[in-house]
Amino acid sequence: MLKGFRDFIMQGNVIDLATAVVIGAAFGAVVNAMVENVLMPFISGLVGAPDFDSFGVVWFNGNALQFGVLLTALVNFLLIAAAIYFVIILPMNKMIEARNRKLGAVEEAPEENIMLLREIRDQLKAQTEVTNPAFIASLVEAERQAEAEAAAKAEAEQNPGLLGKAKNMVWGKD
C-alpha cells in the first residue's frame, strides 16, 4: 500500500503540478503588486478613483444594485490579464523568437504523410457529401417527412374535431 502511494507521488505529473502551484502562488504576488502598486494608481490618476464601487449604484425596492463593483472586478481582471501579457508573455515570445533566429531553427512543416492524410480526408468528405446515395436518400426522406407533417398540420387546422370546435366556440372563433 505504501509502495503504491510512493509511486503515485513520484510520478512526474504530480511533481510538476505541485511545482506549478508553488510557482503560481509566488508569481501571483508579483502580478498583484504590479496591478495594485503600478497600474491601479495610474488608473486612479486618470479617472480620479482607484475603484468604481460607488459608480452606477441603482436602488430597486430598497436594494442597491452596484454595477460599479462589477466594473471594478472587470477592470481588475483586464489589468491583471494585460500585466501578464505585456510583462511576461510578450517578452517571453520575443526571447524565444530571438533564440530560434540565433540557433537557425525553422518552423516545422507538417510531415508529408500528414499532409497527404489531410488531403485524403478532405476529398473523402467532399465526395461523401456529393455522391453518397445514402446521404442523398436521407435528405430526400427528411424532405418527405417535413411535407407530410405540414400536410397533417394543415388538415388538422381545417378539421378541428369535436375538441377543436369546442375551443373555437369558447374563444369566439366559430
TrEMBL record:
Gene3D superfamilies: Large-conductance mechanosensitive channel, MscL, domain 1
Record keyword Chloroplast present: no
InterPro entries named in the record: MS_channel (IPR001185), MSC/AndL (IPR037673), MscL_channel (IPR036019)
Subcellular locations according to the entry: Cell membrane; Membrane
Pfam families according to UniProt: MscL
Taxonomy, superkingdom: Bacteria
Ion transport as UniProt keyword: yes
Membrane topology per record: Multi-pass membrane protein
Signal peptide bounds: none
Keyword terms of this UniProt record: Cell membrane, Ion channel, Ion transport, Membrane, Transmembrane, Transmembrane helix, Transport
Transmembrane residue ranges: 12-35, 67-92
Entry function: Channel that opens in response to stretch forces in the membrane lipid bilayer. May participate in the regulation of osmotic pressure changes within the cell.
Record-linked HAMAP family: MscL (MF_00115)
Name of the protein in its database record: Large-conductance mechanosensitive channel
